[in-house]
Amino acid sequence: MTYRSDDYTVKRWLKATLKNLDSSGLKEFKWYLNNAEESEDGFNPIPLGPLEKADALDTGNLMMQWYSTKAREVAEMILKMMKSEKEKPVVQDGPVSPAGATEPVPPAGIKVSNVTRDSLSLQWDPPAGEVESCIVTCCSGGETVEKKTTKTNSVTFSSLKPGVSYSLHVSAQLRNGTTSTPASITAQTEPVPPAGIKVSNVTRDSLSLQWDPPAGEVESCIVTCCSGGETVEKKTTKTNSVTFSSLKPGVSYSLHVSAQLRNGTTSTPASITAETEPVPPTGIKVSNVTRDSLSLQWDPGIPAGEVESCIVTCCSGGETVEKRTTKTNSVTFSSLKPGVSYSLHVSAQLRNGTTSTPASITAQTEPVPPTGIKVSNVTRDSLSLQWDPGIPAGEVESCIVTCCSGGETVEKRTTKTNSVTFSSLKPGVSYSLHVSAQLRNGTTSTPASITAQTEIDLKSLLEDLGLTPFYREKLTLSKILEIDKKTITDVPVKSKSDLPWYFLKKLMMVNVTARNMNCDDLSGTELDFSHLLASPNTGDTVNPLDIITALFLCSDAFVQQEMALKMAMCQLSVPLLLPSCDTEQCTLMLWAMRDIIKKYRPSAFSQSKGFIEERIVDSQVPMISFVRLGNCSLSKSEILNKLLSNSQQYHDTFVHRNMEGGDSPKRISNGLTEITWYLPGGNTDIDLFNQPVAVANLHGDIASFETQYSFLCQTSAAVFVFFDHSESECKILTNQNQKAQIFLVGNSESKNFRLETLKIVATALNLTASNCILKKKQQNIADFIKRLRKTVRDVVENTQMKMPIAHMAEIAHELGILVDENSPECQAGKKSADAITEEIQDLLRYKEQQLPLQGQIWKELTHLEKEEFRLKEVGSKNIEMYKSELKQQKEKLRNKQNSCDLSPAMACFINAISSPGIERCYFLKWMRMNLDNVSCLKLSVLRELYKEKCKDYYANKEEVKGIDRQLSNSSLGTEHFFREMGQIYEASLSLPETHPSRQQLQHLPKLCAQLLLDGFPLELVDGDASNIPLRWVSDVLSQLNHLVFPKNRIRVVTVLGIQSTGKSTLLNTMFGVQFAVSSGPCTRGAFMLLIRLNKDVKREFGCDFMVIIDTEGLKSPELSQLDYSYDHDNELATLVVGLSDITIINIAMENSTEMKDILQIVVHAFLRMKEVGKKTKCQFVHQNVPDVSAPEKNLRGRELLLEQLNERTQAAAKMEKREENRSFTDVMEYSPDTGTCYVPGLWNGNPPMAPVNVGYSQTLYELKKNIIQQLGECVSANDLLAFKEWMTSLWNAVKHENFIFSFRNSLVVDAYMKLCREFNKWEWEFQKSMYNWISNAERKISKFGTVAAKCQISDMEEFLTQLKHEASTDLSKWEMKLLDNLEEYFKQRHGHVYLVEGYKEEFKNSAKSLRRELESSVVNQLRAAADIKRGLKEVDKIKDNHTKEIEKAVNKLITECRKKNVQMTDRELNKEFDKMWSETLRKMSFSGLKRTDVFTDVSHCLRENVEKKGSHACYLLSRKPLQECGLEPFMYKPEGWGETVKNTFKGWFTKDLVKARQKVADNIIAACQDSVTDRKKRKTNYHNTYIQEILRIIDEMLNKTDVDTGIEFEVPLKQHICAVAARNFQIMQEDFIQANDPLILLDKNKEKFCADFRDVFHERDQCQKKAEEFIEQCLKPAVEDFVYHFLGLNITEEMMTSKAFSTRTFFQGSVLLDLLSKKDFNSYRSCIRNYEDYVKTWILEQIKEHFSDTTKTSGYEEEHLKSSIKNIKDAMEKAKSEKSADLKTFVEHICKELGDKLVISQDALGAFMILNNTDQEQFADWLTESVEKMEETLKKKFKDTTFERKLEHLRVNPQTELFNRVVGCGKQCPFCEVPCEAGGGEHEEHHASLHRPRGLGGYSGVSSGKLSTDICTSLVISDRRFSGSATNDEWHPFKSYREIYPDWHIPPDGSLEASDFWKYVMNKYNREFAEAYDAKPADIPGPWKKITKQQAEKSLKNSFNLS
């Protein structure tokens, strides 16, 4: 017999079977279950506990738990056993033995045998009676060891313990389990001998023995010690150890241990052997000790006992060095360490390895001298000595170090370390150094020796100053000018290494105090009188001359030149001959002085007020030299300073002993020859000398520097020798080849002065008394100086010896003096420069011939470029035709440029700058100097001529003007060559890419970029043409970016100011740079320089470079007569302010008119920047403010400045139409206190001898710190590419007349796009969250009042209020999140966020608007859902009652049929059911949902809406019933008197207006139809909120349109839309009523009820069927709905990840790119004329294309499906755990748990519950299985469903969602109808990336009838006009379009190629568009016809930032 193996079937069988047992039968049954082990069948028993109180049901459940599906087999087995027993077991309190059984006789004859250590056997006589078996128990100590059951009469126990007593019991057992009393016996196992025996504590005469405690009941142990077969000793012990003493040393013993029981029995013995220790050796001694070995001996004859050998160990420091084993009595150890103490141990060893205690002795090896000796830290007066660490090998006590020189000991030291330092040594001396090791006993090793030499002074000084690295790798200008912490902080000098940088920092800022430097005194402040009179420690200071000399030695030629220039400006002496200590050669610093230019006025020019300006090295001035012979009591340098200083103003030109640091000993500067110049100013009252004179000063004794002295004697007009010494020292004076006069200067007050010596020397030199100048006794220094000055003046006025420094190079060569210009690189650079400049005769002609491209051609190109943007001369021409003509003219000019051959000068120039770096730098320097020389010469002639002609100005007026022009054009500098190079490069770009000329010039931008890095300026703006060569400059910057990437972040500082006010000087002083301060006209245009930032400040300021921009002066006299001068200044100011982070406004005039003019210009620039989003800062600098109290005195001045700034701001705002800016602080953050700086005059005194004012330098230093600090506070730095982009955008914008409305910048666009992208993401998250919320809320409403509802509220209105509150809370939370996200976004310092800060409020408003829209939508949807639910409430009750009636009738029918006791067929049952069904329905009353008169309701809502528009609107509405509207497509026709007039007189206008209104109507109708379709898809009942939503859409779209609609248009349109909607809503209502009609629902379920009826009648199992029905009718539709509910969101979200849908701009670009690829005219026409329809279709196509691969949706479907299945399973498990009373409750639990997750049809659920009496548990089992099947079924269904079909089921329509996101506000350009792309819903300004020709929208000329080619981006800058309804048909200038359309921003076409796409389209489809619009084809400009598809595509990508 077979059974179903499932648990359910078995459980039912058990339940039925056990219920049939009576109580005694159940007890017996449980007894067998408990005693299964003792049954023959052997199934596992169930414990007594659970069974004891179990009833039949519990017993069945226990068996199911215990035996699972085998429970039935077990039960049948027990029942069979119960049946076979005659007497049944009785259970009382629990299972017991069967009643009436007699006890058996116990076994007899029991005995034990075969006893071993761990086992024994037991036997007995066979038992009498019906004994089934015997139970044998083995016990020990009262515990059972083992129990056995056997049917034989013997048993064996094993695994017993040895020596243990066991009791054994045998009982007889009957078949029923009854046992006899046991028969018992005892037995004991055998003992075992002890284990784990071991020996320990072995000595010479004793040993100990231990073992493990014996097992079992052992009484004691017997231990025997034997030797040589005889017993030595025997012991008995009860412990487990014993000790034997009095043994013999070195003897082997055998030891035996036996265990003894109480009865005396002993075990076999356990044995072990052991040997006693031997005696150690004696007489041990050491011999033959060396550095690395020693020998050891001991007494002969191996020690007593059984000794095998001796073990000898050598140890040191506790560690074993070596171990030996020997059978002799000696051993030798080698390879030992010298000078180390060793311990030596000798032990005797037995044969078994046992060793004696060792005999020991110590010994020490001989020491060795130290090793690894080396010298380090060698300076000029000290050195350090080191040797290998750890005082030399061995136990050395110390080391003795001796320093010797010339065979004599200089110093001797003893040290315990491995190093020593000797100081106070002599520089450049060789020393021998010896190191010996010394032991504790005083013994020393032989010494280790080494020699070393102290350094010369130069090396040690460079190390002190930290300049050593720069002696080989020279300091460069970029390193010196680098901005670091020291540059911007006032940290005092704390060490000698700070001194050079302090000097350079001050010098680069032209601070005359640069030489006044010393380290801070770090000594204590406590009062110490002992030090008051002590001499200062001059060794701690460095002489300024040493620092200067060191810096010149460690700097490259360009740094030397810059230092010399700055020193000369400070009127500090400059090196003429530079000594070098290491080579003992000096160098003539000719190159270093090349850049020094001096202006002066000799006495001959006093009347004419002329001046001489020339390079000082080329000046023909006499040189007077001053030298010293021996020591001199007079300070030569101090006397020179007084000699050259005016009595009113003393200046330290030369360093002298009484200066700060001047008394410090010179270490390297002796031999330094300095030079300075005295230059007259033409004022005899002030000038000390009427003629220029050079003054040279040799530092040091001429006796030591004969070469320098000889050089001075041959180059000077006179040499003044200061001396005090004897005749012998004066011999050098007579040994020289002298061309100069010699003057002896002595001090008669000196103790060393001898008049006789003076006479001897004077006689030898043939000197007269006038050549000897003595400071007489009692003569003061002033009189002495006066005498000396007169002597010098006489020499200067009378000498013919005037040798320029440049000519001194020949003499230097003869004397072996090096010349710095003689380097190969310098000479190569000079040669190249000379080759170019030596050809210059006539500057103007040279420029025309050699630099032709930058002349008239470039100026014409500039004019054409600006005209392209301004269209001032277009007149009545077609604009696009005119622009094409301009483009052709530009091409001709470029062709003309390309036709010019490369001039020889430019070929040489390009070749020279292509040379290696250092040579290129020399070349450019030579070029600049040569060109300056040429210009200076030319200008001086012109100035003289100008001055001459101006004497009679009116007679020579025209000549004066001509000369004035020549002066303006006579400047020629390197910038002109670079400008020409730029033009050559730009012209080459118009050639094909493969053209050889173009390819040959591609390297030029990189060359220029490298020069920028080298510190040379780049011309940004060509001042002559007032233009930027954009491609050239852009490519240079791109190459620069490539060279420095990724370190490419920059900050920009610019200066603006009136011409010739010291702007360049200010920048040069602040940053140490080299902007030209030329002798010709001042800076023209704008130049930029790069300054590196040190890594320690890069992070702080967020940039890698600082860019300094110098600009041409505003209000230039050269331009003042030109009409465009103000525009020129405005353009320049706007450009540089826009490029800058900080702009310095330089104000250096007293003229209030000029101040107002410059303020007007700069305020204008700042206003423009504010309006385009660029944040910049400014600093006003007032120059030439002499008074120290100027800041306080100028408080009123600062207030006045602010007043003027405010006044200028208002004027600028009015010009730019930005009148909301009323004050300067509205434009930018500005404080007069912190934003204003007062700078004293540049010169301290009267030039040319005035040094730079310290106050000027110091104030600019403070300004520099302030500026750099402000830079650190600026927004994130731009990189070089961003700078390039800004420059391009700014310059393109300033070319237009209206800058603000013309500005377009890709950085701004990119930042705006990023903001839009981020906001769109946040907006979508908000919308998605609220969509999910409202969906969940609608589910809750739909389940309100059902079993699935979780809400405890019973009143719908209260529930609705709660939901509204929740919605408001959620909306507020998301609104705040959006606003917080915006705040955080604008806090970023990267991504150019600051550029779009002006849009912040717009996006905030968009967030708030979104919240309002969503709130309105949510409230409407909640109200509609609640109203529909209320309407269904009554119907649900009716359906429920009807269902109950049917169920009651069916049950009654079943009863009746069963009473017939006849087997009825299904046909008969169906017949009975149909009869019952008809009768039951006849008795029921059916009242369905109430119908709403949709048309009446819609009419009411429409009337309420229109009433607000006035009585005329109501009249229009009443003319036609709503039912008669919307029957045909809406076609707008003008109606009314006003429209008729327009139609009569302005037919062309009316035609356009009709088209525009029809288009508006079409768009509104389409939007409303989408809303209606969406409602119909949801299959809900009609609600009046739906028509209110339609009316809201209409009103909103009418408000947004720019078209003049009017009430005659609005009312018919609303009637049409509402009528169409009403018909759709009527159908929707009918469908809903049909779906919820009770009778229809009953008929729908009739077959199901009938089937259930048949199953119940036949008592069929319905579990599986009902489970499948529940799945199919209830769960499956709910799961499908759940998946489709979220799938729409998923599809929308995935599409949004595409770049095309990220922003509106990207969307527009993507649509147009797709159009371009289609090549289909109809698509273009559709996109232009019906944009919204087209993009809707396009979006749908994109969605279908993206999801054409079904796997893309399957992932989402599977995710949601799994989520649903999990929810269902969880709900089932929870329902199971809640112990439902019946199936209905079980299902209700499931539905309630799924209530907020799945929407289960209540109708389907009600139908399912009818006639459902299935078993709950079985139903749950089948339901689980059916859910799994449902999952697979739905997977397959989703897979097989097409994507198009899926779209129909989606709750969220991706097409609509995406359309609403990308279509934007719906506004279109009023001229060309391109859609607005602005982000956010509440933007204040509309804009589009790309406008198109108006003809594409159907616009044609009034007279010609031809399609227009005009593009609004061109029209808005032209003088054309437009008219329309917006202008009341009045003509209005396009330039002022914002007066009519203030919310539209139409910038001019920035690139001129931006519209190439639409130009290409219009050209390609010109005829097709003309036919479509019933117009003539347009006249296409020629260049349009050349535009290729690739160019069109490129223009699209550039316009929309598509990559």
Structure description:
It is a single chain. With 2003 residues, this protein is α+β, with helices and mostly antiparallel strands. It has 68 helices and 49 strands. The strands form twelve sheets. A nine-stranded mixed β-sheet has the order 38-37-36-33-35-34-29-30-39, with helices on both faces. Strands 40, 41, 42, 43, 44, 45, 46 and 47 form an eight-stranded mixed β-sheet that branches. Helix 16 links the parallel strand 37 (741-747) and strand 38. Helix 22 packs across helix 26 (974-988), helix 45 (1494-1507) packs parallel to helix 49 and helix 48 runs parallel beside helix 50. The chain starts with 6 loop residues before the first helix and ends with a helix. The model is unreliable at 1-5, 38-42, 86-101, 521-527 and 1537-1550 (pLDDT under 50).
Summarize, please.
With 2003 residues, the chain is an alpha+beta fold.
Explain the layout of strands and helices.
Elements: H1 7-19, H2 23-34, H3 48-52, H4 56-67, H5 71-84, E1 111-113, E2 120-123, E3 131-140, E4 143-150, E5 154-157, E6 165-174, E7 183-188, E8 198-200, E9 207-210, E10 218-227, E11 230-237, E12 241-244, E13 252-261, E14 270-275, E15 285-287, E16 294-297, E17 307-316, E18 319-326, E19 330-333, E20 341-350, E21 359-364, E22 374-376, E23 383-386, E24 396-405, E25 408-415, E26 419-422, E27 430-439, E28 448-453, H6 457-465, H7 469-472, H8 477-481, H9 485-488, H10 499-508, H11 544-553, H12 557-569, E29 574-580, E30 585-588, E31 597-600, E32 612-615, E33 623-629, H13 636-644, E34 673-678, E35 693-701, H14 706-715, E36 718-723, H15 731-734, E37 741-747, H16 755-764, E38 772-775, H17 781-798, H18 808-814, E39 818-819, H19 824-837, H20 843-850, H21 856-870, H22 879-899, H23 904-913, H24 917-950, H25 957-969, H26 974-988, H27 996-1000, H28 1004-1013, E40 1018-1022, H29 1030-1044, E41 1049-1057, H30 1063-1071, E42 1085-1092, H31 1095-1101, E43 1105-1111, H32 1117-1120, H33 1125-1139, E44 1142-1147, H34 1152-1171, E45 1177-1182, H35 1190-1193, ...
Helix pairs in contact: 1-4, 2-5, 13-17, 19-23, 19-24, 21-22, 22-26, 24-25, 28-29, 29-39, 30-38, 33-34, 33-39, 34-36, 41-42, 41-43, 42-43, 43-44, 43-51, 43-52, 44-52, 45-49, 45-50, 46-50, 47-48, 48-49, 48-50, 49-50, 53-57, 53-59, 53-60, 53-62, 54-68, 55-56, 56-62, 57-58, 57-60, 65-68
